[in-house]
Design a protein that fits this description.
Layout lengths: L8 H16 L7 E5 L6 H9 L2 E5 L12 H4 L2 H22 L11 H24 L7
Parallel strand pairs: 1-2
Length: 140
């Protein structure tokens, strides 16, 4: 989702997408988690996640302050796994910036940038699907 960069837009967009994901879930008791970087470690975002029954696996920002992520969550095994896997998500955004030409877009307007972003991420998914579908030789 493309938004205006104002320092709050990422968290607001995340709340909208999480709410959509929660509504799509057929079973309201199914556990939903969200992984995010330190920029999402804000009290209002963490509280919004908990109210939506979404477990926030947000990287803790402890630089001169206390993290908003509850200790019960940050000490869980799932949180540790989530923090390791979170780094894999960054590959897609790196690919979009370099190969997908998202680092410095040549279009103007949020709608056009959003279209370019969706197309770039769809292309990344196709590249990943090709790579995942290849038969890899097993080492012996």
């Amino acid at each position: 989702m493309v938004t205006n960069a104002d320092g709050y837009a990422e968290r607001e967009a995340a709340k909208v997408m999480l709410n959509d994901a929660r509504q799509v879930a057929e079973d309201l008791d199914v556990e939903v988690t969200v992984g995010a970087d330190k920029g999402y470690d804000a009290e209002e975002f963490i509280q919004a996640c908990l109210e939506m029954k979404v477990t926030p696996h947000v990287a803790q920002n402890t630089s001169g302050r206390r993290s908003a992520v509850p200790d019960a969550i940050s000490r869980s095994e799932g949180y540790a796994i989530s923090q390791q896997k979170r780094k894999l998500i960054e590959h897609g955004f790196g690919w979009a910036k370099t190969v997908g030409r998202m680092r410095q877009v040549m279009v103007r307007g949020r709608k056009k940038v959003d279209e370019m972003f969706v197309l770039s991420m769809a292309a990344y998914n196709l590249v990943r699907m090709r790579s995942l579908g290849q038969i890899r030789p097993q080492s012996q």
